[in-house]
Design a protein that fits this description.
It is built from eleven helices and 14 strands. The chain is α/β, with parallel strands linked by helices and 392 residues long. It has an eight-stranded mixed sheet with strand order 5-6-8-7-11-14-12-13, sandwiched between helices. The protein is globular.
């Protein structure tokens, strides 16, 4: 099926999707960007200059001496790009690269397939663009278990956060039956990509996209999902401008992604004790409050838990993370997930962890991904043991 019109300049539209290939209609402003993305993933593709002529196959693709990726010739403003996804599907998460959304969803489904007695993939709902919001639950179904929530990529461009959540999920799922009671006495909920629309858009179109893809009228403006939670949500600052990076939406939980988190945590029947949302790139472990520098009621206990995480990270890789109240370490923020999880959902150990790395900002080098994942796993495992010993 061919699309008669593109939605807008710069659009990328799926024309046809088969088991081993996909055809895309790409506006000329995006063809080079998408081509580079496919080359970086070692995905074979061909191009066609219009919607009716057969695809153009470059004779004997030349290899770049640095990355050995095939180069393509310039193509016309509106182009079809077809790529064979069979080699793409064969690749698995090895935490040496950043992966698009369908890789991560397939990863969770694969764990469910191999460990059906402990792993299940839950669809919490749909995004504004109709994508599934998927969560991996790992549990032995003991009624006495407490809950642990870990999410990543609530801000689309913070790719390392999705890597960390999948890495921890992989460890817990694959070793669950052999783990200590600090692991097995909990129901684990992993949401590697809490902002599927934005995350996909950051891979296909705008690497620095932060918000979701919410519309205001006919215009896509996006909402900062980490300003859309209920507790201290406000609409009184400059961020109320839809173009602002921190635009909080029209009302608390206006966005389906945030509403899905609220519904699961409040109505699942699980008694959550730990809530961790992973971000990038400030290298710190923070806790409520985000909207004021007045200490929260459990400041000392939360500080102690944050210190436990930081020490485990340092013992693992030698990397140092700061600890403290979010408002003191970062800036004033309202409507954040940890202020809601702590202040409304009453999850006593609520943390926002800013991952690596200050030097490279959102473009963390791939050779640091695995190090960041390993140190984060060490921090989380140390925290769950600490929480059990506190008997909070």
């Amino acid at each position: 099926m061919y699309l008669k019109n593109l939605e807008s300049k710069g659009a990328i539209n799926i024309m046809r999707e088969n088991e081993d290939s996909i055809e895309l209609m790409v506006d000329g402003n995006r063809k080079e960007q998408l081509g580079k993305l496919l080359q970086s993933r070692d995905i074979t593709y061909v191009v066609s200059s219009d919607r009716t002529t057969p695809p153009y196959y470059p004779p004997a693709p030349k290899l770049n001496s640095r990355n050995h990726s095939p180069k393509t010739r310039p193509i016309s403003p509106y182009s079809r790009i077809s790529y064979n996804s069979s080699n793409f599907k064969k690749r698995v998460l090895d935490w040496k690269d950043f992966y698009p959304l369908h890789f991560i969803n397939d990863f969770m489904l694969d764990l469910e397939k191999h460990y059906p007695s402990t792993c299940s993939v839950i669809t919490l709902g749909k995004t504004v663009e109709g994508r599934d919001i998927k969560v991996l639950k790992v549990s032995n179904s003991d009624a006495g278990n407490s809950g642990v929530w870990l999410d990543g990529a609530i801000h689309a461009r913070e790719w390392i956060s999705a890597s960390v959540v999948t890495f921890i999920a992989n460890h817990v799922a694959r070793h669950f039956t052999k783990c200590s009671k600090h692991i097995t006495n909990k129901d684990w909920y992993f949401a590697p990509v809490l902002n599927p629309d934005g995350y996909e858009y950051s891979h296909s179109t705008d690497r620095m996209w932060r918000k979701n893809r919410s519309r205001l009228g006919n215009k896509i403006v996006g909402v900062d999902l980490n300003r859309n939670f209920g507790n201290t949500w406000t609409f009184t600052s400059q961020a109320c401008e839809p173009s602002h990076q921190n635009y909080p939406g029209t009302h608390p939980f206006s966005e389906p992604e945030c509403a899905a988190v609220k519904d699961l945590i409040l109505y699942s029947g699980t008694r959550f004790k730990i809530f961790i949302t992973f971000h990038a790139y400030s290298e710190l472990i923070s806790f409520p409050w985000c909207f004021t520098n007045v200490p929260c009621p459990d400041y000392v206990t939360l500080l102690e838990g944050a210190t436990v995480i930081a020490k485990a990270i340092y013992d693992s890789t030698g990397h140092m993370y700061k600890v403290g109240n979010f408002r003191d370490l970062m800036y004033h923020a309202e409507g954040t997930s940890i202020d809601w999880s702590y202040g409304v959902a009453n999850i006593p150990f609520s943390y926002l962890i800013e991952l690596r790395g200050k030097e490279h900002k959102f473009s963390l080098p791939k050779d640091q991904i695995l190090h960041c994942c390993k140190e984060s796993l060490s921090g989380v495992l140390a925290l769950v043991e600490f929480v059990d010993k506190k008997k909070y």
